[in-house]
Amino acid sequence: MFNSAQGKTAIVWSCTHDRPEVSKKRFEWLGKLIEDIKPDYTVDLGDGPEMASLNSFDTRYPAKMIGQNYGEDIDSYNEAQEVLWGRFKKKKKKRPMRIGFQGNHEYRIDRAIALDPRLEAKGGKYGVSLSHLNTNKHFDEYHPYENGGPKIAVYDGVAYAHFFSSGNMGTAMSGIHHAAGLINLLGYSATCGHSHKRDFKAKDGAGLYGKGLNGLVVGCYKGAAETWAGQSNKDWWKGVVIKRNIDGGSYDPQFVSLEALEAEYGQ
Predict the structure, then answer these.
(1) pLDDT tens for residues 97-151?
(2) CA spacing 20 to 30 A to 172: which of 76, 196, 200, 216?
């Protein structure tokens, strides 16, 4: 397996949408991949917890709301992170730098507080708070929303965000040419999640250093189909992306599907 010494290596994923009733096995497989690859850093682009308990879409459907519980959502997410990263502590192995981003599902917590400030937990465990996700423990660098939208942060010439806005209204960019749209609109290499779909576009010879621009939409890392999504479930690619030889916005991508991870590490 090629592991270039010229540039850095990263493993990137988005939209795990952890839920209490869904298996945590995929986090174990991802942890084993990280242990094997030994990347310089990992990037979690957000929507880690589903946070169904703060889902405003189900308020008209009481049957769907049964069993939704804020505390269980929080505990489940923290358990998933422990499954992912706990192996390094147990084996006394060095973890890579861990970079995280707040997605719109984590932002449900901020939105709930904005709608009813009485819900906010101030310095305690009772109430609602983004601090309950323990992002300061699970990540070395974490990027919360900024001005009501996903934060953009740049690492080794690549801009990362949960999603990139398509215009002045702040709505998420999408479409059948999503990856090409990223580099054409932004003018630099960019990587995002959010859509659950996979797309990649390379524009060779472009960029400040002539190394080329890469637009990447990383798909999702869901563990189960969504009952509300219908046929869209088939459009979503589940897996993670290994970036090698990252230098000035350029890199060599390797797509590793959830099925491949299960085949390698699920025995």
Answers:
(1) 999 999 999 999 999 999 889 888 887 778 899 999 999 999 999 999 999 999 9
(2) 76
169: left (phi over 0), alpha (psi -120 to 50) or beta: alpha
Does residue 255 come out as left (phi exceeding 0), alpha (psi in the -120 to 50 range) or beta? Answer: beta
Q: In what order do the strands lie in the sheet with 158-161?
A: 153-155, 158-161, 190-192, 213-218, 198-203
Nearest CA-CA partner of 104 in 15, 196, 226:
15
The answer to whether the CB of 194 falls within 8 A of the CB of 163 is yes
For 185-206, how does the pLDDT look when each residue is reduced to its tens digit (9 = 90+)? 999 999 999 999 999 999 998 8
Q: Which own/partner pairs from 34-38 qualify as long-range (CB within 8 Å, at least 24 positions apart)?
A: 34/84, 34/96, 35/87, 35/88, 35/91, 35/93, 37/3, 37/9, 37/11, 37/242, 38/3, 38/9, 38/96
Burial class (CB in 10 A: 0-12, 13-18, 19+), 56: exposed
From 230, 243, 220, 253, select the one nearest 39 (Cα to Cα). 243
What pLDDT score does 56 carry? 57
Q: Kindly state the percentage of the chain with pLDDT values over 70.
A: 93
Strand order from edge to edge, sheet including 41-44: 141-143, 97-101, 41-44, 8-13, 239-247, 250-257
Q: What residues contact 69, with CB distance under 8 A and at least 6 apart?
A: 20, 53
Low-confidence ranges of the chain (pLDDT < 50): 1-2, 4, 57-67
